[in-house]
Amino acid sequence: MVTEKPSLETVWSWLSAVPDPEIPVISLTDLGIIRDVQWREDTLEVTVTPTYSGCPATSIINLDIETALRAKGIEKLTLKRQLSPAWTTDWLTDTGKARLEEYGIAPPRPAGGPQHCPRCKSTQVEKISQFGSTPCKAQWRCQSCLEPFDYFKCI
Amino acid sequence: MGDNTLVLGHRISEWCGVAPVLEEDIALANTALDLIGQTQLWLGLAGEVEDKGRDADRLAFHRDVWDFRNLLLVEQPNGDFGRTMMRQFLFDGWHLAQLRGLMGSNNDQVAAIAEKSVKEVTYHLERATDTVIGLGDGTEESHKRMQAALDRLYPYVGEMFIADAVDEEMVSAGIAPDPASLRPGYEAMLDAVLAEATLQKPADDFAHKGGKSGARHTEHLGHMLTQMQWLQRAYPDATW
Fold it and tell me: Which residue of chain A has the CA closest to B123?
């Protein structure tokens, strides 16, 4: 139970500790889907934008946000869905992109494909499929080390 | 918009687990997921506008054939993989143009849903185009199948561009683009892709219609709904 309203900065820091349910190496704030945090009188309002409209992780993300904030003692909480402006991979933070690469997922690039293989760093890569194991990823293959890898789609 | 994405989303989900190769299976399931996600947004908005307490699920599962307002194209059976991809390509080309038009809607919610969907559908069209070209300009067998798919599905293209009284009202209210205005761009896109795919567009431009108004669906939609809605029909209001 909190007696005083925590500052917005504190709330943001709590949210930056909530991992993405599908790609746990990055946080929800790294992913760029938390668009705003505001106090509306004594209710905390968190604005979330979906990555893909049908992404099954969306409801888990909302549940994770709620669970994390409730654990910090926030009792009055509303989650607001914001569609516009639509989420773009430009909102992924640099830390997020670096963590994706370390994890073996090539980060999104406006050029439309990965810069290099996230494992051996070879630039000889080819697309297997425009789609992958989650809506946000595509499948690529390294022609040098021959390993397949995920590429985070650029949208 | 919501009925189109719902019916096509369900149709392509029928491939889940049985597509020709794993990557295509995943791609079709991902496309289905995007379309069903868009359905939740469109039908959710429709329910709000109607204001009779019906949400997206109720609209999807508690309506019968005659209440569906989808294009006849999207309810056509999957056929072989080539026909599924030809149907997807013919739809995606229109869908993208329509969504771009809706992004300029003077209804904020319509514009926001269109803005969200346009990114996903750009991707769908890119993939469908690549597949139609790859299979059209592929082996003798794949070419033959793609031409047969085009011949069979082309009569369902015209309906996308024919306005009815609802369209006219939407145009005059500044909510949606005039369907006929989308045709020249669509035809140009179609001609370019079909040329590269070495496929012949049928000369006859006869158009089947009646899906968008609900007046006359093809027999296939009812069969699809028996699958899609059976749980809600057998156990009304059951929840997960």
Answer: A130
Which CATH number fits the domain A8-87, given the four candidates 3.30.360.10, 3.40.930.10, 3.40.50.720, 3.30.300.130? Answer: 3.30.300.130
B23 interaction partners in chain A (CB closer than 8 Å): 128-129, 131, 139
The pLDDT tens digits of the residues spanning B164-219 come to 999 999 999 999 999 999 999 999 999 999 999 999 999 998 999 999 999 999 99
Instruction: Supply the Cα-derived Rg of chain A in whole angstroms.
Output: 17
Statement: residue A2 has pLDDT above 70 = no
Which of B26, B116, B120 has the CB atom closest to A83's CB atom? B116
| ipTM summary value | 0.88
**Helix or strand or coil: residue B218?**
coil
What is the chain B residue with the closest CA to A87?
B116
- Percent of chain B scored above 70 by pLDDT? 100
Do residue B33 and residue A135 have CB atoms under 8 angstroms apart? yes
Distances (CA, A) of B175 to A3, A38, B141, B162: 48, 32, 45, 17
Q: Please report the pLDDT score of residue A105 as a whole number.
A: 96
Q: List CB contacts (< 8 A) between B26 and chain A.
A: 129, 131-133, 139
Instruction: Read off the pLDDT of each residue in A22-51 and give the average, rounded to a whole number.
Output: 95
Task: Please tell me which residue of chain A has the smallest CA distance to B38.
Answer: A53
Residues of A whose CB is below 8 A from B38: 53-54
How does pLDDT run across A86-105, given as a tens digit for each residue? 999 999 999 999 999 999 99
Q: How far is CA A96 from CA A13, A19, A29, in A?
A: 15, 11, 9
List the domains of chain B with CATH numbers. Answer: 2-234 (1.20.1260.10)
Question: Which residues in chain B are closer than 8 Å to A53, comparing Cβ atoms?
Answer: 34, 37-38, 40-41, 116-117, 120
The pLDDT tens digits of the residues spanning B165-175 come to 999 999 999 99
**Do B6 and B43 meet the contact criterion of CB atoms below 8 Å apart?**
yes
**Domain range list for chain A:** 8-87, 92-152
Distance CA B118, CA B233 (A): 33
Both tokens assigned to A31 = 């992913």
Q: Is the pLDDT of residue A51 over 80?
A: yes
Under an 8 A CB cutoff, do B23 and A50 touch?
no
DSSP state of A19: B
Q: Which residue of B has its CA nearest to A112?
A: B123
